[in-house]
Each structure stands twice: as structure tokens, then as C-alpha cells.
Amino acid sequence: MAVAVAAAVVAGVLVITDDGKGSGAGSAADAVQGPSGPAGSGGSGDTEGSGGSDGSGDPDGSGGSRKLVTPAHSSGPDGTTVVIGEAGAGHTLDLYEDLRCPPCAAFEQGVGPAIAEDIEDGTYKVSFHFAAILDKNLGGSGSTNALSALGAALDVSTDAFLDYKAALMSAKHHPQESEDSFSDDDYLLTVSQEVHALRTNASFRAAVREGTYDPWAKKVVAAFDASGVSGTPTVELDGSPLRGSGGSFPVTAAEFREAVNQRIKDD
Predict the structure, then answer these.
(1) Distance CA 187, CA 130 (A)
(2) Between the CA of residue 192 and those of 2, 201, 235, what are the distances in Å?
(3) Phi, psi torsion values for 128, nearest 5 degrees
(4) Distance between CA atoms of residues 252 and 205, nearest Å
(5) SS3 assignment, position 97
(6) Alpha-carbon gap, residue 234 to 110, rounded angstroms
(7) Per residue in 108-153, pLDDT tens?
(8) pTM to 2 decimals?
(9) How far apart (Å, rounded) are the C-alpha atoms in residues 9 and 170?
């Protein structure tokens, strides 16, 4: 079980109302289990327990009665590959996270801006992998539901994906570990107001309300489950874990940059 390190959500934020999928609509009744993902190694934040990642009972990954829709800017089997950055970048950073995980939020707050700069500079491209460990270990659907909303942002643009991910995991909006705020669509849409490209995007709002990317989110989670990575956050550069000064994942931009530069220099 992860140590709760995220800040409490600030009260009194704008609530968006739309027709369609009601607030708090979980995605646990939709598709589960998808193709295998890349091999990896465990991190030191949230760790897997036993059983499926979200407790859903659809072992064949068919998505139940809901049609699988993959976001733009995804690729690979069932669209579970999300890679952002220059195709010709000489290095690949693999980032394994659970959107509901407080240590992942702390990593995003401390290191996320450095990663965004490195993507822009072409230092490496980033392959994103997402788990739903806390949905399984604590109950609820926030990890998977937030991932579905993030898929809707990815369909808008890769910049919207990165900006929305940062907003979800910010100190302002990320919930405490025991809270399942991300299971509430109203809350996810409130957070989207931090992202210019999503503020008035009717297609994005409809996709969140209707759960358009719920089956895709389950496929992404299943790919994580098949990857061999057991904890989040896990950070790898060219297939090998990056470590900070304490032997765990880097928690500051300085630690992260030092680890990246040393790895590239050694190569």
C-alpha cells in the first residue's frame, strides 16, 4: 500500500453539468483484460495484490457490449501503445503510473515538467503505461475512470493528454489515497477546466460522460498487468529502471535529470 502523499483537493471548484453519463459513473462494468504489454520491473510506490486489476469479470477482454474505441495518437494492439515524442529520438522513457496513486502524483509534480521539456527537446520519447492498482486494492473505479477521461484528452491532442494528466495529478486536484474522487465524471470535467484545449470541447465532455474510452482504459490496464511491472511509479530508460539518490524512483527534477544524463553518458 502506498504512502499517501498527495494534497487534499481544494473545495469550491466549478462543477460542469452535461446530459449523458451521470456523475460518479464507474467503468468497472465494461471491458477488461487485453493484450500483453512490455516487460518491466516493479517500482516502489503502489504494488499489485492478487486478482484482476479492477475486479471486473470479463476475462476475455472483449469489452462486453460496449464497442472498443481507440483514441487518436494511440497505436499497437487495441491502441494500448501511447508514445509521445519525436519518432527518431534515440532513447525511450517508459513511465508506469496509476492515476489514483499518491506517489505517482508526487512524481508528476516533481518531475513531470522536466519530462515535458525533454520530450520537446527530443532527448527521448515517452511510452506511457497505466495501472488500476488502487481500484483493486482499495475498491472503487477512479484509476480506470480517470484513464478513460485521459483517453478522451489524448483523442484531442498529445498536448491535451500531457496537460490533463498534469492537472489530474496536481496538488490542487489529486485526491488522497482513501478517496475515489476520480470515479466522479463531474470531478474529472472540473479538472479539465485547467486545460485550455478541453475547456469548451464538447466532444471531450461527451466522451467522458458516455464512457467512450472505458473499454480502451481496461485494455491499457490489462497490458500493464501483463507487463511484469508490479508497482507504480516505475520509471525506465531504454528498458532499465532509473533510480534516485535513495535507490527508489527519482522524486525531484534534479535527481531525475542526473539519472538520465548519467545513463545516456554511459551508453
Answers:
(1) 20
(2) 26, 10, 26
(3) -95, 135
(4) 33
(5) strand
(6) 15
(7) 999 999 999 999 999 999 999 999 999 999 999 999 999 999 999 9
(8) 0.77
(9) 9
